[in-house]
Amino acid sequence: MLGGLYFVMVIFREYYGAAPLLISLSFIHSSLRRTTMRKISAALMLSVLALGSSTVHAATSITTEGFGIAIQGNGLADEMALLSSEAGTSRFNLDLRNNELGVPLTLYSISGSNDYTLGYNRYSLQLGSNFTIDLHDGYRIDSIAVSGTIYGSLNPGIPPAAEYPSFSKIGEVTNSFDVRLRMGESPYPTLAAQTYDAIQGDRSVLVASNQAFYDDLMLRLDTEFELTAQAGAYFGYAGPYDDHYISTYDSSVTFGVRDLVLTVQVSPVPEPSTWSMLAAGFGLLAMAARSRRKA
Question: Ice-binding protein C-terminal domain: which residues (predicted)?
């Protein structure tokens, strides 16, 4: 906004000089001063409160300069903590409920299975959290993102090498993580989504939406992970037509999530009076241009 006004001032001065410029913009100065002082006072108050509290506390609702946010009900997270809030960007650490994702889960193939299922085992879990974001007057949401770290390991059972007519099969393991940002009201449209497969070691997670919102928002964060494990096997044959035996070699797979952070970015929306001032300024520019052409 200030950049636009500065541009108007420079052009106007080139045509009419400094004195008419001061007279023409006096009404803009008085309006801007009232608006700016309100915003500066609010920012100073938030700074004092931040300095007075150096510890980060978990809560179900938090208020920042531009908006308030609250977790609704039990889901993926039941509390959050404000990590930082500056220049319109607020970051919230999500405390994972009951450590259902925070503590790594290990799944094993079913030990001792000697049939052709080879101890196949599967586990999946869906978890979600609902948030309400209440915008303060004069603000809009610019972007919403979820970031963090997922980690896991893939450990297939490995049988010894076999010679014909015997044969062996390496075990199979999978892990996957799906994360979605959705609007929390029917028909629950998806804002952003990512799926991560074959997670071995640490991997960064980032799901972000740059869609702007000018009103309060119901937000839903949905996650789902799935693990599968099937044992490796050795199929032993004495001859092509002889009975065989199966030896299994257990497989395992792990998965976990840590440092899950919700980031919300907001910015001030120019007041209607500001747009009027800018329009008036550009009107003066047009008049100046016409006068100069006539001269």
Answer: 268-293
- Between CA 17 and CA 19 the distance in angstroms is 6
d(CA 225, CA 230): 17
Q: How far apart are CA 73 and CA 160, in angstroms?
A: 51
Q: Which of 166, 62, 175, 173 has the alpha carbon at shortest distance from 125?
A: 175
Q: Are 243 and 273 in contact (CB under 8 A)?
A: no
What is the tally of structural domains in the chain? 1
- Output the DSSP codes for 228-274: EEE-EEEEEESSTTS-EEEEEE--EEEEEEEEEEEEEEEEEPPPHHH
Q: pLDDT category, 101, cuts 50, 70, 90?
A: low
- Which residues form the domain of 102? 2-294
For residues 279 and 5, the answer to whether their CB atoms sit within 8 Å is no
pLDDT band at 142 (very low <50, low <70, confident <90, very high): very high
